[in-house]
Design brief:
Layout lengths: L1 H19 L1 E2 L12 H5 L13 E7 L4 H8 L1 H10 L4 E7 L5 H14 L4 H10 L11 H10 L4 H9 L4 H13 L7 E5 L4 E5 L4 H10 L1
Helix pairs in contact: 5-6, 5-8, 5-9
Organism: Nitrosopumilus oxyclinae
GO molecular function, one term: oxidoreductase activity
Keywords: Disulfide bond, Membrane, Oxidoreductase, Redox-active center, Signal, Transmembrane, Transmembrane helix
Length: 214
């Protein structure tokens, strides 16, 4: 009986891991949407070597608690060990679940991209994260973050006042829903042959196992 229990332990662990590391189900969406270009295009600039064999597509919301935790913890190790070494690249796409403030913050990152500072502004939002639906994202705070990363404020404010990127963010959000994204953070990790979906702020070990599998 003891031997049976010992045999069961790795099976249970495997089942639990499988809950986090599942091949992307074709039944969730039209598989024709899941092309490399569709997944990468219209998102953030690529972080890392554009020729890296593995891509992480992160779907996030700037007010999301677990997105914040991923960026403060897991991403640092992934960036140091995998992105900076050319093994993995990262693309961020917006999935603003927390309402108009999240939408406005997402618009602001693309206004920053106009000045070549998408990732600096993106990081500044998470550095100053103030919770979900607490009112910390305002026009004033977004302008302060722009000032911190040395953006031209006149250009930045005009972009945001004109809602230059509102349609872009909404289109990204809709595309995410079309392919079955329903929570933040969610990740599609792929290598051109298969896609693995990770839902939620999973431990670093889950990402490491995914990289090994790909």
């Amino acid at each position: 009986m003891t031997q049976l229990y010992l045999l069961a332990i790795p099976i249970v662990i495997g089942i639990i891991t499988g809950m986090f590391l599942a091949f992307y189900p074709e039944t969730e969406t039209n598989s024709s949407l899941l092309t490399t270009s569709n997944l990468i295009d219209d998102g953030s600039p690529i972080m890392g070597n554009s020729n890296a064999p593995i891509t992480i597509l992160e779907w996030g919301d700037y007010q999301c608690t677990f997105c914040y935790k991923f960026h403060q913890n897991t991403l640092e190790t992934i960036q140091e060990d995998f992105i900076n070494t050319g093994k993995v690249k990262l693309v961020f796409k917006d999935f603003p679940l927390n309402g108009p403030d999240s939408l406005l913050a997402a618009e602001a990152t693309y206004c920053a991209e106009d000045q070549g500072k998408y990732w600096q502004y993106h990081d500044e939002l998470y550095i100053n994260w103030g919770g979900e639906r607490t009112g910390w994202i305002t026009r004033g705070s977004l302008e302060n973050f722009a000032n911190t990363v040395n953006l031209d404020l006149n250009e930045f404010n005009k972009c945001l006042d004109d809602h230059k990127y509102q349609n872009k963010v909404n289109a990204i959000h809709e595309f995410g829903k079309e392919i079955g994204i329903d929570a933040t953070p969610s990740f599609l990790v792929f290598n051109g042959e298969k896609i693995i979906k990770i839902r939620g702020n999973q431990p670093l070990e889950v990402f490491l196992k995914t990289f090994e599998e790909l």
